[in-house]
Amino acid sequence: YVKHLEHEHLLYIKTFWLILAFLYTFRSVYDDQPNAHKKFMEKLDACIRNHDKEIEKMCNFHHQGFVDAITELLKVRTDAEKLKVQVTDTNRRFQDAGKEVIVYTEDIIRCRIQQRNITTVVEKLQLCLPVLEMYSKLKEQMSAKRYYAALKTMEQLENVYFPWVSQYRFCQLMIENLPKLREDIKEISMSDLKDFLESIRKHSDKIGETAMKQAQHQKTFNVSLQKKNKMKFGKNMYINRDRIPEERGETVLKHSLKEEDENEEEVLTVQDLVDFSPVYRCLHIYSVLGDEETFENYYRKQRKKQARLVLQPQSNMHETVDGYRRYFTQIVGFFVVEDHILHVTQGLVTRAYTDELWNMALSKIIAVLRAHSSYCTDPDLVLELKNLIVIFADTLQGYGFPVNRLFDLLFEIRDQYNETLLKKWAGVFRDIFEEDNYSPIPIVNEEEYKIVITRFPFQDPDLEKQSFPKKFPMSQSVPHIYIQVKEFIYASLKFSESLHRSSTEIDDMLRKSTNLLLTRTLSSCLLNLIRKPHIGLTELVQIIINTTHLEQACKYLEDFITNITNISQETVHTTRLYGLSTFKDARHAAEGEIYTKLNQKIDEFVQLADYDWTMSEPDGRASGYLMDLINFLRSIFQVFTHLPGKVAQTACMSACQHLSTSLMQMLLDSELKQISMGAVQQFNLDVIQCELFASSEPVPGFQGDTLQLAFIDLRQLLDLFMVWDWSTYLADYGQPASKYLRVNPNTALTLLEKMKDTSKKNNIFAQFRKNDRDKQKLIETVVKQLRSLVNGMSQHT
């Protein structure tokens, strides 16, 4: 076989060279002249003949070998056929035997393929199972509303698991579903947040109430100690017989300690009352979703809306303390929640945001309280409002909110509280004055005496020496008023508590409010009482006596305030009580009213006068109305013995002057046209009785004829007409030593003209009598002279 290949190889080489020679020759044929073709064909034939010779030589050379090979092949032919049969039989038998093997082999191949596929599937499933497990976990977290964990699971799926199986269709479906899940989570968390905001809006009052109780609990012990220290002035202490009840201080302390024990019970915190998890979840969810700013803006916007709603008061809030309490607890609850959010979250709310919100709220709160408190007319309600404001301020101050403006507002409300107290005590004083009998307090035994001096600081050694029964000079209203002034001081002190003010400031506030009570309320009540029509002279006298004792008691009120505040009266800036001036003004008003009523009473008696102005002869005795008036004045002036000397003297002088003026006006009345001499003589008898009354010294203390001088004008005028001494009057007129210096020419002229008309009427039929004619001429002459004198005075003027 190798040799055969070698021969073929050599044959190929020769053929190759023959082809090359042919091509070369063929080319040369066509390159030469036209005869070249013939030459070429000749040469080709020659070449072919040469090759045939060579082939024949080669065949002859190998012929024997070929014959030998054919012979050998013929010999082998039989063996080859046998071998073929054997091989065919063997192949058949082998094929028959290998069919089962082929079946098994195909099974093995199929199993191997399945095994490989299973392995591949297991590998792929092992790769997909964590993804599916995480996605299943995501579904469970969504079902369990663990949205923040679900978002974290989504992040793991996207960043870790999905890249492993991104080529699978189910993964694409999962990837497409995640944004929807995120939106669902945002909507659900936002819905939870809305529910949370609605819940805390409804429960803000409970949150605020709890926070205010906590703040109050923290202060209770200190307040109790302070009250206990202040109680030292209530332990059987007397300040000039002015005792402060011990029971009041003990009651206050026991009440405080009782409140402290109650407050020691477990107090729920804001975390116990409010579930803040929706806020945390929503914040974390939006943070994970990269939309934290949207959440913050939404939260702040909604809370600002809620703040406006919380700060909006009810229209009738000022009617009850519960209205104010509900208003304060809602506000406290709102800001307690915001403070908690500020400290447990990062960036959801900031200190600047809460400060801005608080400043806005504080301005609104102050405006609301200022408006609604102005409607409060009950001091107890104003006091409750003050206590609520203090607790409100202390609570929010504990959470870091500035509350100085609230305490400034309390000073405004303090003035209003004082106004309501003044109105209330004005009613109290009016009731006391209405119930008073304006008579000295009768005392029948020692026990009653001690009761009075315990209630009112009265000291009079002479009265103490007197035996029972006896009387205090003042009426029942005096100790009642004194007690009510102390009650007012107590009430005013209640407002000053817990205002974080010094004792000096509290002392100043108490003194100023007490001054207002004395100078405005009590003074106004006294003046109104004095001006009441049913208050008579006796009552006015008693009022003057009462004001005198109340004036003396003012120093004990100052000591009372000093004992409360422990601020000495000698301190430079200590305000003094204006009770002295108050009661002096009231007393002066009462004195003036006495003068007025006394003059009115005189006018009433004078109006009873019934003179016969045309009588020819007097009755020989004073008029009845005048004697009744004098007896009345005597009895009244007996009552005046309890008044200060100058008051009684002034009243007596005023009464005499008014009586003199009234009598003078009666003579000069324009409606009185005629007066007879008999009427003048009767009138003179009445004036004589007035002068006798004045000279009898109805009120001690007048020097000489001072009181009689009140009737000097009447006396000189009547003497002039009784004596008919016109020549002396006209001659001495204007002289300091004139006997009729007090007689006015105009007055004399008016009275003379009335007598002139009477003389004419009475002497119509007696005009021929010489005396009557002379008297008439004299009257006419005097009238002319008086008119000349009056005209001369007018021209001179």
TrEMBL record:
Q: Which domain of life is it from?
A: Eukaryota
Please report which protein family the annotation says this sequence is part of: Belongs to the SEC15 family.
The residue ranges of the Exocyst complex subunit EXOC6/Sec15 C-terminal domain are: 406-754
Q: Which residue numbers delimit the Exocyst complex component EXOC6/Sec15 N-terminal domain?
A: 43-212
Q: An example Gene Ontology cellular component term from the record? A: plasma membrane
The protein's organism comes out as Aotus nancymaae
What name does the UniProt record give this protein? Exocyst complex component
Kindly state which keywords UniProt assigns to this record, in alphabetical order.
Answer: Exocytosis, Transport
Q: Which gene encodes it?
A: EXOC6
Annotated Pfam families: EXOC6_Sec15_N (PF20651), Sec15_C (PF04091)
Query: Where are the coiled-coil regions?
Result: none
Which GO biological-process labels does this protein carry? Golgi to plasma membrane transport; intracellular protein transport; vesicle tethering involved in exocytosis
**InterPro entries xrefs:** EXOC6/Sec15, EXOC6/Sec15_C, EXOC6/Sec15_C_dom1, EXOC6_Sec15_N, EXOC6PINT-1/Sec15/Tip20_C_dom2
Described by its record, this protein's role is as follows: Component of the exocyst complex involved in the docking of exocytic vesicles with fusion sites on the plasma membrane.
